[in-house]
Amino acid sequence: MSSPNCAASSSIGNWVRPASWMPGSPKGGNQTFETDGRQWEAWLHLDIVAALKVEDPEDMDDSSVWWGSREFTEAARLIRAELDTEAPDVAASAIAWAASAGVAVPAQARIEEVLRSKEDFAEEVFFNLLDALGFPAAAEPSPEH
Prior knowledge:
Blueprint (H helix, E strand, L loop, with lengths): L5 H6 L4 E3 L9 E6 L5 E6 L1 H8 L9 H5 L2 H31 L7 H8 L6 H12 L12
Antiparallel strand pairs: 1-2, 2-3
């Protein structure tokens, strides 16, 4: 997948590594290491992550029945609410990380908005997060490359 932020992501490649990422997947997470050894995590596409974090009951033989139940929906809603309360801390960590890379610090509300977004794929959210953090877009490749 080509992205306008390829240069930004490769320039920070020694700081970012996927934690649970399948290209083309609607969910993902990033575990990021800062230059001072601290790390932070960000779940992307919180609705899907919440649904995936709901555990099947031990006595459930058919998961499709569980996934369609009101109990599953409520469990996912509670997990989503918990993930949502973590967004301000995650945004603050992302901003500190961008600042340590020398990027102009963006408004925290914008980062929280991106973290809570519902794009189709985690990659979209990831690149939107890089954009919101102020990392520069990649230069267009020259025709001879």
